[in-house]
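Dear colleague,

Thank you for sharing your sequence with our group. We've completed the structure prediction you requested, and as agreed, I am returning the results in plain text so they can be pasted directly into your records. Please verify that the sequence below matches your submission; if there's any discrepancy, let me know and we will rerun it promptly.
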Amino acid sequence: MSKDDKDKVAFLYPGQGSQHVGMGLDLYNAFHEAKRLFDLANDLLGFSLKSLCLEGPEEKLNQDVNAQMAVYTVSCIVTDILRNRGVMPDITSGYSSGFYGAAYGAGCFDFVQGLEIVRRAGEILLDEGKKTKGGMAVIFGLSLDEVEEICKRAGDVWVAIRNTPRQTVISGEISAVERAMETARRENALDAYPIAVATAYHSRLVQGSEARLLQGFKDDRLHDPLVPVVSYLSLDYLIDKARLKDTMAAQLSRPVLWVDLIRKIGCDTRVMIEVGPGAVISRTVMWIDRAIEIINTDKQRGLIKAMERCRR
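Please find the predicted structure tokens below.
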């Protein structure tokens, strides 16, 4: 790794599951960027996303599409705060629906267009998911090969996300997911439990979402990335808008190769910033490679640390 590589910064964006009531509150009280983007979101959506993020109720915030839009919005707020103060990424990527935040961070579209894409993709996935009763679950303590073998035996369930070397998310038909969890527990998994989601994301059950998302894309509002955006599916560094668009669609029903992605980005930079709410990404990065410096921005003190560490 060269000296220049050590100075590079990766922005990593969280997805659904990082939302929590009160997220963005200290940002709203301290930074004009938060007020601006919350106002834009409220105008587009016709309801107060700001109130949902800051005050809840938790049950409504946790609804799939609401959670995805809320995490995207807070992540974009953090992006604007950082870059307006001289902290810019050399690489971006995102965890599941966090990929839209990564595209925003790379300058591929404006905030409103990105929010429209997040909402439309989320609604398409839910609609596709209605065709089959699907679900997701986490399996702790088994290797990827062991989980893949369990899924084959259970039928109609697949590896959806590889969070860490020993933590895997599976997705598929509810009955198959339940069989896979039971088998995992019998075969010495540390734990296996369902995730509270409305459909089987990142599985063949929502494969029809890819073509549907591509149908409504407005190419004239999409721009080539200013910095490479790394796909969590192909692990390619995307540098043109055509491939970015196709990748955003393809990723909807394909697995999130998160462990491989972090290891690949780690070859180019040892400094990463989790841009948005929660600490899911920070925890996974520490389990994947403890030599990587990961800065969490869920609270204002993390933002300040990122500015001090990475300002140019």
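Summary note from our side: Residues 64-83 form the longest helix (20 residues).

Kind regards,
the structure core
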